[in-house]
Structures are given as C-alpha cells and as structure tokens.
Amino acid sequence: MKHGTMKTGARKMAWMGAVIALLFLVQGISMGAVLEATPDHVDFGTVAEGDPVVAVSEIVNTGDTPVEITNVRTT
Which region holds residue 46: left if phi is over 0, alpha if psi is between -120 and 50, else beta? Predict the structure, then answer.
C-alpha cells in the first residue's frame, strides 16, 4: 500500500466519523417550545373608552416540548 493512499483513507474515515457524529448531535437538538399566533398582531385603531373590543387569535405550539401558560397580562 502506498503512503499517500493511507493518508487519503484516514482522511475519508475521519470525515465519515465527523458526519456521523454531526447527525447524532442534530437528532438530539430540541427546538423547545415555539408559539406561533395567527394573526400575529391586531390593530384596533382608535377605540372610545368603554367601547368593547374583541380579537380572536389562534396560538399553536409548533415546537417539540409542552407549553404551560401561567401568567397573562395586557400591555
């Protein structure tokens, strides 16, 4: 076996090992909780004080872990 061939083989093995390790790491990565709202904002314009307003929005957890909402406030 030639010396250059062994270097090339070792490089290929190292490269394949790195790719396999990366694949295992990617599989273990968690997105966590990802909330997406539709629509993502609501503009009520000008509202007279005392007039009721209603907005409906769908919020979906598209992540891979559960979400617990424990405190809701308006701004």
Answer: beta
